[in-house]
Design goal:
Elements lengths: L2 H25 L3 E3 L4 E2 L1 H27 L5 H30 L5 H20 L1
Length: 128
């Protein structure tokens, strides 16, 4: 895959995720019934999925821009793969923290455990 295809693909993923998040905020309510506050898990899950796409695209592009300063094509391809993986892991970490906070079970040691799991996963890929 060329670098242009990677960059445009990540921009498209980020745009679709952003439009999904904005559309979910303004169009849907997370409740079946506002009197009983029964949660519609499909809508909440769709919101988290769109947020994941947006964060993954944003983190991947940001990390690629930081890492790819005046380098050749081979290093840019390597940096694109690393940036995609790190963007994926960072968005999983942020989403995990948000889900725990929405369930009201996020405490500092749970947050550290999620950060630690993401760091161990990244260290595994760096050692491999």
């Amino acid at each position: 895959m060329s670098m242009g295809a990677f960059l445009w693909g990540m921009r498209l993923v980020m745009l679709v995720g952003f439009m999904g998040v904005v559309g979910m905020i303004f169009s849907f309510t997370p409740y079946f019934n506002t009197k009983t506050f029964e949660i519609n898990y499909f809508v909440v899950g769709l919101f988290y999925f769109c947020l994941f796409l947006f964060l993954m695209g944003m983190f991947s592009l940001f990390l690629f821009r930081i890492k790819n300063r005046d380098e050749n094509e081979d290093e840019a391809r390597t940096n694109a793969g690393i940036s995609f993986r790190q963007g994926f892991l960072l968005s999983l970490m942020v989403l995990g923290l948000l889900v725990l906070q929405s369930l009201r079970i996020l405490v500092w040691w749970d947050g550290l455990l999620i950060v630690g799991v993401v760091m161990i996963a990244e260290l595994y890929y760096l050692m491999k």
